[in-house]
């Protein structure tokens, strides 16, 4: 078949930002997958609760301190996270680099707090179904913090390398920021389930 | 903003067609030789591999089915031991569902979605390569375990407590759980690629109401995968945790619950049927118009019906659990919703019949299989409505009636359309036609063999023969029917044999097909058969639902993508207006290394939970290798 040229796309920019970028949509799809996973885990939590004669099973409710501090920390981290995203949008290399260093630290800090959350549950994963599900909820979320932290660390290195200053990388920074917001938002229902539902 | 933004673009506008093709071949082609093939990220290369692998699993699973039929042909036969029989039906079911049906449908999507929406490669080609390797390793793990006599033996649904730590010592159930994780990883990756390809890489002008029906089907299927697969991954992971580190999810003595397993499994398992069936709907809706010589009747209702089926399929899982004793109200709700799903199914069938009615059918092999599909699927649907009623289900549950029903649905609803699709698209994939004569033989053998095999199973079920038994006593009134079924199964197998002979023969010596042998109107037919590595010389521009009018010999296209590096066009979600140019990754071996690292971790984790910690380090390393830019112009653009 012969071509009949009806359109010229050569003037389009390279690598669109935001919704013009395929990776933005892929990040969205992965958030949907993981969101379904979190949703299911929460459903299982309530399912097991509905079967149990008392909840929590054979354990006092978890201590609030570590989990609540972590929640506060995660919420605060959203502010610098949004700023990094904005800087990436405007391609401000220096600020993005600085912001990523801050975000790396803000990825490590919750992990340090998380170490205290597991003992605060007062139950082991193999004691009973309650222990199994709360450890799983915490574990699932910890994995997300961890993978996002690694992602952020690698990205930080990239931004300091000669590959840093280009549209594609800035897009990656924005997607990384989007994903961190997801990690924070996904925590809120988990926090309520783990710490507050057993107190009613 | 870098200097190479607009001015320095070597546009293809002024170049002759042949020169454009030469440059694109250089830049999109894979290197020759073994490593070139391994590193390829061309969606067609990967999809072809995927399809062939899935068909090999179909053959292996079919051989297991024949083995079961041999054992059941006579009462008290001693061909297969009870242990081995348990492994065989588990392998057959798991293999057919997880290694054949879902992968093959996704693979067809991987091949045709980019071609049908008019783009040069799938979104995230390296992820695509990774997904194939992971799938392959999962399949090899399962079959190796079978060869070593450690295959799972707990049924393809692996119900607890049978699959739990107490009743299933050894590694069998762990192998089942990890095989699930492999295949779901792969399925999820492909689903994400398809969603993004459809949303962002459609040809300019291909607005939502001009998307080909098969592409719609693949899109809805991908969303079902995204929503349903996490349930089975959660289930299989908690199962393995119960088995390995002593969590108590499924242990009633410690507050766990065996029914929780069934809920999770069927929350995935029911949509799974539609994950397999919706692509088939898309195939049938694409093939039918080409052979009746008129456009599809009812594009919009069909698309709506597919979406409705997808949504409804999540409200139905409990109909697999009527016999476990759930509250009455719940049962009524699920009976009603199970029956509600026959409404979209009815719409689909009505649209197909109307399309045929108004057209002039040419009875070539693909159309024969489509008609075979409609007939068979209707019967499967009717018995489906029957088992959706609680009193009836209570009678026939776990008998051969159910075995008959779901083979009508699965083979009728998926395998028939799939074979139709192979006959229809074989010319596009290989450049050659399949044989019409052998095709007819294959059709009649398969169609007759199928009904003679599976229809009598309804009767066996009504006579009370339970499923998953390795033998039965001669006093029972089942022997005659069983022998008949086993003989018919051989006929069915013969039909498949003819089909495979035809595939192999035609791949080598079939008649040359030319770009558009069926005079079809979707975009994949606008390029040569098989398509070149870059799919289209220039990106097509679409202005109607029938993207192609085969007679006018000219294709409206967009120029201006670079020809000196891999570049795609990104368009907007609703209207498909051009938004940006995006570079597409080059070939890479990293996806293979990443898949190997993942396989090592998953297999190791059956033996020690620490594998998850130590095993993730190599995975991280391979992923960094995969994503780290190599300093090429694409990476830096
Ligand atoms: C090609 C001809 C086939 C034959 C002759 C056949 C035969 C059988 C038989 C006899 C059983 C019952 C085993 C038992 O309960 O003891 C069975 C089970 C099953 N088959 Fe097939 N089958 C065929 C193809 C397929 C296909 C194409 C699929 C899926 C796409 C499939 C999916 C299943 C499943 C899911 C089970 C249930 C296994 C279980 O209970 O764990 N079969 N098949
Ligand atoms: Cu179902």
Topology record:
The complex is a heterodimer of chains A (200) and B (637).
Chain A: E1 2-8, H1 22-51, H2 65-89, H3 93-120, H4 129-160, H5 167-196
Chain B: H1 17-28, H2 33-39, H3 43-72, H4 82-117, H5 125-147, H6 172-200, H7 213-244, H8 258-292, H9 299-312, H10 328-340, H11 342-358, H12 365-387, H13 390-396, H14 400-430, H15 436-462, H16 479-509, E1 539-540, E2 554-559, E3 567-571, E4 578-583, H17 590-604, H18 610-627, H19 633-636
Antiparallel strand pairs in B: 1-2, 3-4
Helix pairs in contact in B: 3-4, 3-5, 3-16, 4-5, 4-6, 4-7, 4-8, 5-6, 5-17, 6-7, 7-8, 7-9, 8-11, 8-14, 9-11, 12-14, 12-15, 14-15, 15-16, 17-18
The structure holds protoporphyrin IX containing FE and copper (II) ion.
Copper (II) ion (CU) is lined by residues 270, 273, 316, 319-320 of chain B.
Rounded mean pLDDT of chain B is: 93
CATH architecture of the largest domain in chain B: Up-down Bundle
Give the biggest beta sheet of chain A: none
Helix-strand topology string of chain B: HHHHHHHHHHHHHHHHEEEEHHH
* Largest pleated sheet of chain B: 2 strands, antiparallel
Structural account:
- The complex is a heterodimer of chains A (about 200) and B (about 625).
- Chain A is built from 5 helices and 1 strand.
- Chain A has about 200 residues and is mainly alpha-helical.
- The model of chain A has no long low-confidence stretch (mean pLDDT about 95).
- With about 625 residues, chain B is mainly α.
- Chain B has 2 domains: about 40-585, Cytochrome c oxidase-like, subunit I domain (Cytochrome C Oxidase, Chain A, Up-down Bundle), CATH 1.20.210; about 590-630.
- Helices cover about 65% and strands about 5% of the residues of chain B.
- The chains are: A mainly alpha (about 200), B mainly alpha (about 625).
- The interface between A and B is large, with 56 and 75 residues.
- β1 (about 1-10) of chain A pairs parallel with β2 (about 555-560) of chain B, so a sheet runs across the interface.
- The structure holds protoporphyrin IX containing FE and copper (II) ion.
- The site of protoporphyrin IX containing FE has 24 residues of chain B, from α3, α4, α14 and α16.
